[in-house]
Amino acid sequence: MEFGITRMIGDLKALGFNKVEAVTASDGTPFAVLRGFEIKLGRFAGRAIDLALPAPPNFPQGVGAAIHVSTAPQLLPDGSVAGHHNVIASPLGAEWRYWSHNFGWTGERTTRELLAQVNRIFHDA
After folding, report:
1. Out of 19, 50, 96, 112, which could bridge 90 as a Cys pair, Cβ 3.0 to 4.6 Å?
2. pTM, full prediction
């Protein structure tokens, strides 16, 4: 059985994401980057962005505590709004923003469930 970035990218391709690639951030974190990811829900629905998902070595038993977003202009300003969002610089580069999120991931779950939570983040943004 595969784990980590190989598993995440394989799962994303199986779900129909054709523009997905492995990228390693400046801090060594592996990411699955979905190019042209269309936001389906919330006030940013219809926007196409680049979305990066951290892929820890034990994925799908664990996930990173964030999503990383690249788009121009950025969707949310840097900073924190209590109970709403925490957006800061990303180790992926100046054009990326780290959106903090606790996925509450316990045990092995699916990439489809991860994407459902990502969609919820955009719904609530």
Report:
1. 96
2. 0.92
* Domain containing residue 86: 4-124
Could you give the number of structural domains in the chain? 1
Distance CA 76, CA 108 (A): 31
**Per residue in 19-30, pLDDT tens?**
999 999 999 999
Which one-letter amino acid corresponds to residue 66?
Answer: A
Q: Judge contact between 48 and 58, C-beta under 8 A.
A: no
Q: CB under 8 Å to 121, separation ≥6 — which residues?
A: 67, 99, 101
